[in-house]
Amino acid sequence: MAGFEYRQAAEIRDALAHHNVRYLFIGKSGAILLGFPDTTQDADLFVDKSSDNGRALAAALKDLGFELTDEQLGDLERGKDFVQFKNGPFDLDVIFAPDGIERFADAWKRHAEVDGFPVCSIDDIIASKEAANRVRDRESLPRLIAFREWLRSKGS
Asked: Domain count of the chain?
């Protein structure tokens, strides 16, 4: 599978906006949208947990070309902590309860808008990776922290 591309982010943004889904880009895909010079294989979305939002997300994913199973539909409506999609035009991780972030509403207050993309703050992206404590996250943390310092130095 090819890596995450701006085109995919734009498709996600447009489909989710059409269905009024409340979400934020998170993870490395979010950092990339903030300008982080790296690559990732998938898009990561932090989604506001409600039945209505989950149903709207399911409709948007179908519009994007994802073939959702009944189980995945139920997972989205219930707001299962983590739902992974590899059955569509690109890989997508939907996260209703990311490590290191207590509430969607709090993350929303801190988020950035980048070309119409709602993106978690770099602080939340870093906090989530620190809390997840996976090997690949620990490896990318020094670069993410350096990127945050660069962002702060330029006044963003």
From this structure: 1
Domain housing 86: 6-151
- CA trace torsion 136, 43, 7, 37 (10° rounding): -30
Q: What is the pTM of this model?
A: 0.95
Coil, strand or helix at 86: coil
Positive or negative, the CA dihedral 31, 42, 141, 22 is: positive
- Give the pairing of strands 92-95 and 43-47: parallel
Burial class (CB in 10 A: 0-12, 13-18, 19+), 103: exposed
The string of pLDDT tens digits covering residues 88-145 is 999 999 999 999 999 999 999 999 999 999 999 999 999 999 999 999 999 999 999 9
Is residue 1 assigned to a domain? no
Q: 23 near 38, Cβ under 8 Å? A: no
